[in-house]
Amino acid sequence: MLPGVYSAEKKDKTIYYRSNITFSGKHISLGSFDTEEKAHLAYKEAEALLYGKTSLEELLVAPEDHLSFDKKITLINFRDNHMYIGNPIYLHKNYFSYFFSPNEELKFDIDDLFYYSSHKIMRRKGHLFVNDYGLQTSILSRYGIKAHAVSGRDYEFVNGDTSDFRYSNIKVINPYYGVSQIEKNGQIKYRTKIHIEGNYTIGTYSSETKAAIAYNKAVDLAKAAGIHKNFPENYIDSIPAKEYAEIYTKVRISNKYLEYLSTI
C-alpha cells in the first residue's frame, strides 16, 4: 500500500481505501476514497499542510483537492494552535471562526468553543441550527432569541455583520413572544400580538414585562375559549410571583380580541 493508505471492505464486499496521518502524537483519519491513489494524494496534501507553512488566508483561496475543506481547516488549526477539533474551527486570539466554506465564516466568542467543538452547525432555508439532544436547536437561542424572531425587529447585529455571533455583537430588542418594540408619540412602547388564524393585537403597554404578561393572559383566554393550539408562553423571572399576579389581573386586553374569542 502507498504511504498513509489502508484498504477496507464494505458490507457488499466492495473494497475501498482509507487515508490517515499521525501528527504530534495524534492519529488523524483523512477520509474514505474509491482508489488507493486518491487516498494517497489526500495523505500527501495533509502532510504538506501539517508540515508546511500555508497560512489560513492562503488556504481559503486554494483550489479544491482530495482533502475536504472541513478537514483542511481542522488540520491547519491543529498545526497552528495545537488543539485538534473535528469541526471546521480555527482559533484566533479572542474568538474563533467556524467555516461553512472558504467564503462563509462565522465568528464566535471563545466561551462557545466547547459547545461548537461538539455540535456541528447546519443550515436549512437560511436558518442555522445544531442537533442538540435529538432536537434541531437554532444557534440564536443561545442569545435568548426566540424561534421565529425577525432580524432588525426582535434582534440585531450591532456592527451589521450577520456572520458575527460574538455576544457583544448581538443585541436582543424583543426577548418575549408576541411582543415588539414600537415608537409612539416619541416614546418607546411595547405592542403585543397573538396569532390565531391571523394576527390579533392584544394591546400596547408601557413596559415589555407588561406586554409579555398580556401575551400570556391572551394565551390563557384563548385556551379557555377552546382554542387548541400549542402556544409558546413567556417565562418571566425578573419579577416576584406576587407582582406577576397583580399585573396579570390588571393588564388590559383589547375588546376586539375578547369579542373574537366570544364568537368561537
SSE string: EEEHHHEEEHEEEEEEEEHHH
- Give the N-terminus to C-terminus distance in angstroms: 75 Å
Count of helices? 7
Structural class: alpha+beta
How do the strands of the widest beta sheet line up side by side? 1-2-3
Unreliable segments (pLDDT under 50, ≥5 consecutive)?
none
Average pLDDT rating:
93
Binned, the helix content reads: 25-40%
Strand proportion, as a percent range, falls in 25-35%
- Note the main sheet: 3 strands, antiparallel
Question: Quick one: how many beta strands?
Answer: 14
Q: What coarse outline follows from CA principal-axis ratios?
A: elongated
Radius of gyration: 26 Å
Describe the structure.
The structure is a single chain. With 264 residues, this protein is α+β, with helices and mostly antiparallel strands. Among the domains are: 1-67, GCC-box Binding Domain (2-Layer Sandwich), CATH 3.30.730; 179-262, no CATH class. Helices cover 28% and strands 30% of the residues. It contains seven helices and 14 strands. The strands form five sheets. The chain has a three-stranded antiparallel sheet with strand order 1-2-3, covered by helices on one side. The protein has a three-stranded antiparallel sheet with strand order 4-5-6. Strands 7-8-9 form a three-stranded antiparallel sheet, with no helix packed on it. It is elongated, with a radius of gyration of 26 Å. The relative contact order is 0.06.
